From TrEMBL:
Transmembrane segments: 74-95, 101-122, 157-180, 192-215, 227-246
InterPro entries listed in its UniProt record: Adenylate-forming_domain (IPR052979)
Positions of the UniProt region annotated as Disordered: 30-54
UniProt keyword Secreted present: no
Name of the protein in its database record: Uncharacterized protein
Domain of life from the UniProt record: Eukaryota
Compositional bias (Low complexity): 30-39
Segments of skewed composition (Polar residues): 40-50
Source organism (scientific name): Aureobasidium pullulans
Keywords per UniProt: Membrane, Transmembrane, Transmembrane helix
Keyword Membrane tagged: yes
């Protein structure tokens, strides 16, 4: 061990200070040892060969297999059933012979509210978990065909998208009827009602466009952003629009107009959208 004494001037204090530097020297020795050993152990294990079972032949034509498992899978079948049922109702309403706009507006509003109600409830946590719990109650001893059908509950998204697209279709008709009604001056006399209705329709269309599989896959973050924030905005715009429509309808009875709250709860759309708060 070496010790070194030195005096240096402290620039900050202006005096001399003693610095003791201690240097330690160590010597290290290295040890090396080598040992070589070699052992050869040979294990002779018999190779297990399994007889390859032949793949069963395909029972259906290629186009049928494509339609069943890809083109028209369970998700798309549920979507098609829901959408085509609503489309049939829309065509039936348009060809029913009712020429009055006042007759078409309640049907369009109720159909849109009913579809949006189902589309939201099928994604609601309590409803979603309840459906899965019911399907899980089926014992393993149940027939395989029944359990295969219940396992398709995972494709419930077809109900969500089918009702959402169908509800948007009905809301397009409702928007057209409200705008035409405002132009004719039959019931709606203020432009604020068609403005909020068109704004709500634009929000629905934006959500539908970003929910398309191709756009959703490529711009998934944008899809999540629009689906949530546009959905929350649609709640606010919807309730404003619903209150305005209820107020417009109740004022048609110029003699004794009923209170706004009574007119509001009489609209089926009020109960269809109240599930947002649960």
């Amino acid at each position: 061990m070496d010790t070194t004494h030195s005096f240096e001037k402290d620039v900050e204090k202006g005096n001399d200070c003693k610095t003791i530097a201690i240097t330690e020297k160590h010597s290290f020795s290295s040890f090396s040892s080598t040992s070589t050993s070699s052992t050869a152990v040979e294990h002779s294990q018999p190779q297990l060969t399994q007889a390859e079972e032949p793949v069963p032949p395909k029972r259906q034509a290629r186009i049928i297999r494509y339609l069943r498992h890809t083109g028209l899978n369970v998700y798309r079948r549920i979507f098609s059933i829901v959408f085509l049922a609503n489309l049939a109702g829309l065509v039936g309403l348009l060809v029913s012979g009712h020429s009055s706009i006042l007759t078409h507006m309640p049907y369009a509003a109720n159909a849109a509210a009913a579809n949006f109600l189902v589309a939201i409830l099928i994604r609601q946590d309590y409803i979603f978990n309840m459906i899965f719990r019911v399907c899980q109650l089926v014992p393993l001893s149940a027939p395989l065909r029944l359990r295969r059908i219940l396992a398709k509950v995972y494709e419930h998204g077809g109900m969500h998208t089918g009702c959402a697209i169908a509800g948007t279709m009905w809301f397009i008709l409702l928007t057209v009827l409200i705008v035409v009604n405002f132009e004719t001056g039959a019931i709606i006399h203020t432009p604020i009602v068609p403005i909020f209705t068109v704004l709500l329709l634009i929000i629905f269309l934006v959500m539908c466009v970003f929910a398309h599989p191709a756009i959703r896959h490529r711009f998934h973050n944008s899809f999540e952003f629009t689906h949530r924030f546009a959905g929350w905005c649609s709640i606010v715009v919807f309730w404003v629009d619903l209150v305005l429509i209820a107020d417009t309808v109740r004022l048609q009875n110029t003699t004794t107009p009923e209170p706004l709250g009574i007119a509001l709860v009489k609209l089926p759309a009020f109960w269809g959208r109240s599930n947002y708060f649960f």
